[in-house]
Batch of 3 targets.
Target 1
Amino acid sequence: DAKTTQPPSMDCAEGRAANLPCNHSTISGNEYVYWYRQIHSQGPQYIIHGLKNNETNEMASLIITEDRKSSTLILPHATLRDTAVYYCIVRVDSYGQNFVFGPGTRLSVLP
Amino acid sequence: SAVISQKPSRDICQRGTSLTIQCQVDSQVTMMFWYRQQPGQSLTLIATANQGSEATYESGFVIDKFPISRPNLTFSTLTVSNMSPEDSSIYLCSVAGRGQGRVAGELFFGEGSRLTVL
């Protein structure tokens, strides 16, 4: 079973920040938080990952709480092309470890 | 990063037949994964395929139904055997690699094979 809990769906206005929450209260000390997204009819795409510190890249920012029991993915200026299902996954950073996908959050960016 | 090509991209099949899905990667990779995504659902891992060894199947998936080949480090096939309408899904091939995210074992996905069983 997935180790994360996410809201099933969210709406966001185009141009505004999209904040997608994820709860992972049973996360272990050596598990990372990963975010992937799946745009309709495509394979999932890596967005960002982190262990303890907040992370930022060209796609998004990841805010992890100090106790690491929850995190938020931030898309700073959502566009219509960001409409997708977003998956939060916790996993040990190792080639041999499987990615367990939960139901994810279906984000709809509205014009 | 890795570029993954899957064939066929979609197919419509009759009940009781079998279909083999091919996955080609543009670089050598040790681990390849096969996922299933049923309509409106999330991804479920079917099996892990390592070159030179038998595939490792997840609970609920068996080799007789989903035989997998891994003849070399760039290619794998998944066969869906004796299909029924319940097998209608998207089947996704993925590989573990070190991408621009510099994540060990970061997953790269193909575009998937959409299978409809009548």
Target 2
Amino acid sequence: NFMLTQPHSVSESPGKTVTISCTGSSGSIASNYVRWYQQRPGSAPTTVIYEDNQRPSGVPDRFSGSIDSSSNSASLTISGLKTEDEADYYCQSYDSHNHWVFGGGTKLTVL
Amino acid sequence: EVQLVESGGNLVQPGGSLRLSCAASGFTFSSYEMNWVRQAPGKGLEWVSYISSSGNTIYYADSVKGRFTISRDNAKNSLYLQMNSLRAEDTAVYYCTTIYGSGRFDPWGQGTLVTVSS
């Protein structure tokens, strides 16, 4: 089964830049769009990146997404970190068996 | 305002059944594909089931196939999840979500908690 692997946690200081990776287990991660969701404690997830690198309206341009086919991975980069960015982040894609797949999630700590 | 409101979560014994509902408002529900996604306490997100806008196409995660049934009533702007043969590992917050645009899950409801325990 297709899986997406994320680091369990990352931490960085305010104002810095952090990148969260999401690696596909098989096939080409570029074959289907990757989305990224932010989930703050006690809240439902919200979309921060869709179609690999697009931001919904209202999401600041400090958030960006990319695909690296050579490593079969997607990345979420957050620049100019703010304490409000502290949350869990999940990547998501679609496999060949009509299943949606989420990565295990990455806890971002801004300290 | 686009809104999804889940209900029906409860404490149920292993082997029991429960039916979740999701009431949609603020958009043309009958035009949108829908999903259920769950999150076990302290764990990550897990996709559970998908239903097309007409209800004619349905998919399930392997972990719930044969036990859960997704359905919708477009006249009532409602999505449902019938859960049978519940197990302890089904304990989670269950979210309903709309598929928007090219496939992103947006928006999400606030979730409803299902606890399977004796």
Target 3
Amino acid sequence: DQQVKQNSPSLSVQEGRISILNCDYTNSMFDYFLWYKKYPAEGPTFLISISSIKDKNEDGRFTVFLNKSAKHLSLHIVPSQPGDSAVYFCAASDHNNAGNMLTFGGGTRLMVKP
Amino acid sequence: DADVTQTPRNRITKTGKRIMLECSQTKGHDRMYWYRQDPGLGLRLIYYSFDVKDINKGEISDGYSVSRQAQAKFSLSLESAIPNQTALYFCATKQPNTGELFFGEGSRLTVL
């Protein structure tokens, strides 16, 4: 059973508009969440993170929102640019877990059309 | 030069063959990880190591083994490859005190 789910395998957005990528989790012990971006033929790279003590974290065009009661987080990209086209992975960890490992979602492929 | 380097980048092999994927890092991190990526399943943890003497199984360790030869080197072995091990494999290191992982560029393995 996947503890972190990204229910939309793909998303297509026009350049300049907002992209919203969603992620749901089931483990209430998760207390730290991250988004990674992956281009073809490259490894994933860290994009933005949020601790469970916050409900929003912003970094330039990227904002992550966390709704703990709903066990849901989302990544907003505004304005979207063609260079944002990539696969986005949501990940979560539990700092109380000795391994403190990341559990990843299945990814969402974002396509930003010029 | 990449901080996390994986070799080979691509490999095609046959069922039953032994395969080793190698990973080296220049970030000086103690913690290293091996993940595999399959379509729709994201990245799943195979093995991880907190230091040279500490090796741990991840979510999907069956059919795999690892060796931490030094702080900078962590290799993944498939003793007898099978077709469902066809995947993209990533090595990663972890930034101390944060959840951030630094990934290599990946090794694409095809088992025929």
